[in-house]
UniProtKB/TrEMBL annotation:
Species: Vogesella indigofera
Superkingdom in the source lineage: Bacteria
InterPro entries for this protein: DegT/StrS_aminotransferase, PyrdxlP-dep_Trfase, PyrdxlP-dep_Trfase_major, PyrdxlP-dep_Trfase_small
GO BP field: polysaccharide biosynthetic process
UniProt-recorded name of the protein: dTDP-4-amino-4,6-dideoxygalactose transaminase
Homology family: Belongs to the DegT/DnrJ/EryC1 family.
Residue numbers carrying N6-(pyridoxal phosphate)lysine: 187
Keyword Repressor: no
Key words of the record: Pyridoxal phosphate
Active-site annotation: 187 (proton acceptor)
Annotated Pfam families: DegT_DnrJ_EryC1
GO MF assignments: pyridoxal phosphate binding; transaminase activity
Length: 387
C-alpha cells in the first residue's frame, strides 16, 4: 500500500467547463469583478431561492466581516460563536472591535448548543454566529427563537453548508439576517478563494455591496457600462477590498451547476464509510433526524473511542505512513493562544468541544475519490485499528 500515490485529504474537482470559462474571462479583458461575477451572483441567488440576493466576495472571511458590519456590530459588542470552529468565525468579530464570546457545542453534532447561547447572553450581546459544522445544520429553530426573544442578529457561517437543507429549506433562506458561504479550495464547491453573502434584507445587501469595494457607491462594472462618466465615483464609507474577480466567478458558475451531482457523490462516499467503519471503535458522524434535512458532507469527521487504543495524533501518523492524508476539524478556539489568552478561556469551560478535539480525525472525502481510493482509506483505517 505504501508504494501507492499519497491520497490527499481533499482535492478540488475542476473540469474543462471551469477551465474554458476562466480562459474566456482572461481573453475578454474583464479579469476583475464584471459580467461573470454578476452571472455567478444571479445563478447563486436563484439556486438558493426564496427571493435572496447574493454578493460575491473574495473569501467567506471577508463575507462574514461584511455581514457583521452590515448588521451593525461595533466596538464593545458581544457576538456568540461556537468554540468548535475555524478562527475566521471569531476574528471577523474582532475586526469590528467587538468581542467573540465562545460557547460549547453539542456532543453528537459538534454544533453550537442553543442552551449554551442562552447562558452566554449579556446586555452587550448583539449577534449569534451559528456554524453548520461539516455540513449539518445547527438547531436553527431554537437559535432563531432565542434571537427573536433577545433581539439579536443572526449571521450564519455556512462555510461548510453548500447545499444543506434544514427541515425542507436551504441554508440561506432561513429567518436569519445574513448567511455566508465559502468557496475555498477544499469546500464542496470552489473558486480557489471566494465566498458569497446571501440575504433577503435589501439594506444589508446594499451595505455589503458598497463596503465590498472601498465604500464606493458604484462598482467598476457599473461605472464602465453606464452613461454617466466612467471616471466618477463617490466614496460613502471607509470600505474594504473584498470583491470577487471574474477569473474566480468563472469557476464558480460551473461548480454551481454541478453542486447537486457533487452532493450525490459525497452522500455515496459518506454512506459507504458509515457501512464499512460501523464495527470499529469509532464514533461516526450523525445524520440529521428531521425530515427534509440533509448533510452536505463537506467533512467526514470521526472520533476515536478510548477502546481504539491509539491516540488521535498517532492515528494520523499511521494513516500517513499508509499513504492517506487526514486532517483535524477543529483545534477549538479556546485552545488557540489568541482567544485562550485574550479572553482567559479555560478547557474545562468547553468540555464537549475539548473532548471532541482530542479524539477527532477527518477522513478524506471529495468528489474525485474513486471507489479504489475509498477502499484504500477504509483498509488503512482498519489496519491502524487492528481490524
Ligand atoms: C467554519 C468556517 N468558517 C469560515 C471559514 C473561512 O472561509 P474562507 O477561507 O473562504 O475565508 C472557514 C474556512 O475553512 C470555515 O471552516
Amino acid at each position: 500500500m505504501t508504494e501507492q500515490k499519497f491520497l490527499p485529504f481533499a482535492l478540488p474537482d475542476i473540469g474543462e467547463d471551469e477551465i474554458n470559462e476562466v480562459v474566456d474571462a482572461l481573453r475578454s479583458g474583464w479579469v476583475t469583478t464584471g459580467p461573470k461575477t454578476k452571472q455567478f451572483e444571479a445563478d447563486f441567488a436563484a439556486f438558493i431561492g426564496d427571493g435572496v440576493e447574493a454578493i460575491a466576495v473574495n473569501s467567506a472571511t471577508a463575507g462574514l466581516h461584511l455581514a457583521l458590519e452590515a448588521v451593525g456590530i461595533g466596538p464593545g459588542d458581544e457576538v456568540i460563536v461556537p468554540s468548535y470552529t475555524f478562527t475566521a468565525t471569531a476574528e471577523v468579530v474582532r475586526y469590528l472591535g467587538a468581542h467573540p464570546v465562545c460557547v460549547d457545542v453539542d456532543a453528537a453534532t459538534f454544533n453550537i448548543r442553543p442552551e449554551a447561547i442562552r447562558a452566554a447572553i449579556t446586555p452587550k450581546t448583539k449577534a449569534i454566529m451559528p456554524v453548520h459544522f461539516a455540513g449539518l445544520a445547527c438547531d436553527m429553530d431554537a437559535i432563531i427563537a432565542i434571537a427573536r426573544e433577545h433581539k439579536l442578529k443572526i449571521v450564519e457561517d455556512a462555510a461548510h453548508a453548500m447545499p444543506t437543507y434544514y427541515k425542507g429549506k436551504l441554508i440561506g433562506t432561513l429567518d436569519s439576517d445574513v448567511t455566508v458561504f465559502s468557496f475555498y479550495a477544499n469546500k464542496t464547491m470552489t473558486t480557489g478563494e471566494g465566498g458569497m453573502v446571501v440575504s433577503k434584507n435589501k439594506d444589508i445587501i446594499a451595505r455589503c455591496k458598497v463596503m465590498r469595494l472601498h465604500g464606493i457607491s458604484r462598482d467598476a462594472f457599473d461605472r464602465y457600462t453606464s452613461k454617466t462618466p466612467a471616471w466618477y465615483y463617490e466614496v460613502v464609507a471607509p470600505g474594504y477590498k473584498y470583491n470577487m474577480p471574474d477569473t474566480a466567478a468563472a469557476m464558480g458558475i460551473h461548480q454551481l451547476k454541478k453542486i447537486n451531482a457533487f452532493l450525490a457523490k459525497r452522500e455515496t462516499l459518506a454512506a459507504r464509510y458509515d457501512e464499512a467503519l460501523a464495527d470499529l471503535p469509532l464514533i461516526l458522524p450523525v445524520r440529521p433526524v428531521d425530515a427534509g434535512s440533509n448533510h452536505a458532507w463537506h467533512l467526514y469527521p470521526v472520533r476515536l473511542k478510548p477502546e481504539a487504543g491509539i491516540s488521535r495524533d498517532d492515528f494520523i501518523v499511521r494513516m500517513a505512513e499508509l499513504g492517506i492524508g487526514c486532517s483535524v476539524h477543529f483545534i477549538p478556539l479556546h485552545r488557540q493562544p489568541v482567544w485562550r489568552d485574550g479572553y482567559g478561556l479555560k478547557r474545562e469551560d468547553f468540555p464537549v468541544a475539548d473532548a471532541a478535539f482530542e479524539a477527532e480525525v477527518t477522513l478524506p472525502l471529495y468528489t474525485r475519490m474513486t471507489d479504489d481510493d475509498q477502499r484504500r482509506v477504509i483498509a488503512a483505517v482498519r489496519e491502524v485499528l487492528g481490524k
